[in-house]
Specification:
The chain is α/β, with parallel strands linked by helices. The protein has two domains: 215 residues, Alanine racemase (TIM Barrel, Alpha-Beta Barrel); 105 residues, Lyase, Ornithine Decarboxylase, Chain A, domain 1 (Beta Barrel). Strands 1, 10, 11, 12, 13, 14, 15 and 16 form an eight-stranded mixed sheet that branches. Helix 3 packs across helix 4, helix 4 runs parallel beside helix 5 and helix 5 crosses helix 6. The protein is elongated and about 75 Å long. The structure holds pyridoxal-5'-phosphate.
Amino acid sequence: MSRPELRIRTDRFLSNIVAVRERIAPSALMVVLKDDAYGHGLRWAVEAAQSAGVEWYGSYDVGSGVEARRVLGESGRVLAWVTSTDPEIDEALRQGIDLGVGSAEYLERIVARAYDLGLRARIHLKIDTGLHRNGLLPQEWAQTIADVRAGETAGQLELVGIWSHLAEASDAEDDEAQAAFLEAVRVVEESGGTPEALHLTASAASWWRPELRGSVSRIGAFCYGVRSADGPDLDGLLPVAELVATVVEIRDHGAVIAIGSFDGIPSTLVGATVGTPEGPRELVRIDMTTSVVAAWPGMQVGDAVRVFGAGEHGECSATTLAESIDTVGEEILTRLTPRVRRVVIE
Ligand SMILES: *Cc1c(COP(=O)(O)O)cnc(C)c1O
């Protein structure tokens, strides 16, 4: 093996899913799949989560939703929440993909496409609770709900969810956002029934703030064992991915490994700790396709070095590496280039 490998541990993903579900119950888990399942591979993630009986999948865009649907067949619910083009809406309606809706203009387009196709769109309406990142404003909420109810009566719509996204910057702000969310839910209830899926929280708030959880929790990072940057360790969750590079040459002061900045390793990670057969060592140099790790006794060509992982050989997690260069673990994972071979370990 001279190309670096991102080893994907299915057993850990499954045990993370069990731990997350236990923690958030009775809220249901929606496994978030954006950025190719945070660099782990969407197909693999959906297959594994489906085997664990996960019902909800959050795909971000319609294209990824269609991929998830292909794996799932008729089972499961897939939500694509980014505002999409008309052809994408058509695809979503045909494939039974739920659509997140954050503007009156998008709602209108969905109704028009559903009418033309003779299909009923399943929608999750988004209220802006302060993040100002797509979402209906509180002052347009009542009118939009009236329009949605009219669309239901006419047969183009089914309101299955209400949702919002938290800033997770401070507990006080998130509490305010929840108050705005609950007010929006109340308005919907008065218009005739509560949709089954109420969802507000992602990984961190779902894990640490039980009082904010709705009937569904949208969780990406923690399912993959990626803890929040500057956040505490997560009891019972393990990093799913390990980045492994092989020693290809021994030099006086260290081992040359076959991974470098062309593989998506930020060159600013010089000085970070990686895992070797003899435990943690410093990453002393990062070139384009190779890097150098400080020597260990008995080092030899063919040895495996873990750039990040679960710590079994002294390596850090992706998040710990990320913190040393002021970014987040997700970025370390999703920046890896196709030169890195993804290997699923059952
Ligand atoms: C990315 C994303 C999530 C998942 O966030 P994590 O912190 O990775 O769990 C949930 N909801 C929305 C709208 C997102 O964009």
